[in-house]
Amino acid sequence: SGSKVKKLLGNGIWNSINQLGNTLNSGLDLFVSNALLSGMQTGQIAIAKNIGTMFSMLSGIVFQPLQPQLLRDYSDGVNEKFLKTMLKCMKLCGLVGSLAFSGFFAIGMLFFRLWLPNQDTDILYSLTILTVFTYITDIFMQPIYYVSTLTVKNKIPCFITIVGGFLNVLGMYFLICYTSLGIYAVPITTVVIMFLINVFFNPVYACWCLKIKREFFYPLIIRHLLSTVAMCFVFRIIVAMLRPVNWLGFLLAVLILSVLGVLIYSVLMLNAEERTMLINKVLHVMRNRN
Predict the structure, then answer these.
(1) Are 147 and 78 in contact (CB under 8 A)?
(2) 37 Cβ contact partners less than 8 Å away, ≥ 6 residues apart
(3) pTM for this structure?
(4) Largest Cα–Cα distance of the chain, in whole Å?
(5) Pseudo-torsion of CA 203, 208, 214, 217, nearest 10°?
(6) Which of 14, 32, 163, 217 shows its CA 20 to 30 Å from the CA of 179?
(7) Are 114 and 124 in contact (CB under 8 A)?
(8) Per residue in 128-151, is it b (16+ CB within 10 Å) or e — as a string?
């Protein structure tokens, strides 16, 4: 079908254009830093961005296996089954995103002290926390991003991403040149712009595409953010009690925080049916590995 090929090609072109905005939002940090900051500061930002890249890869790893289920359910229409699948996928992505951020928030300082003992770990930790902060919502909202692809309505998100990217670059330049933020201006602009887009545009636009109430996703978004705050608070207390000082203690703390984080998120975010499903999947994976 010529019309279907044209539609598919057009959708692919808009997705490619969207990558321009993503490049402006996250790919020009080092370019701006190299032009306006010192070589040492650029290197510190590069280290923080490496951790951010790991979070970005984690986002893809978690969501890609969920796409076929969303596509199958959407093919039957925007009904209760599809919306229920959307919320389940968001919770699963949110579990991983909250666990990763909260864990790094609690034990990231020790990680840098063990990995780069001769560097300024305080600055590296602060830069990295700011860099990965957006992934609290970014990983959680992967199913929401996918709605524009499912409905083939991705022109407006492309424009929003590109505009946000230009504002990001301009914001970095202005804050570095005319404020005392210095090196922190680079991640702060990205955090503010991406957080605003994720919280105030993407959920509303997805609801418009699906023709449902525009506040449909917000109760879950608020619960997710509160759950992440709770995990950060509890994790900090646990790390303070464990007081790890070497790689062995670090790995033990990561294991304990992972188990505890799954329990906290499951209690705060999942219903009884979803908890049972999560337990069954974990047991299934364990049996297959054995």
Answers:
(1) no
(2) 45, 176, 182, 183, 186
(3) 0.88
(4) 64
(5) -40
(6) 163
(7) no
(8) bbbbbbbbbbbbbbbbbbbbbbbe
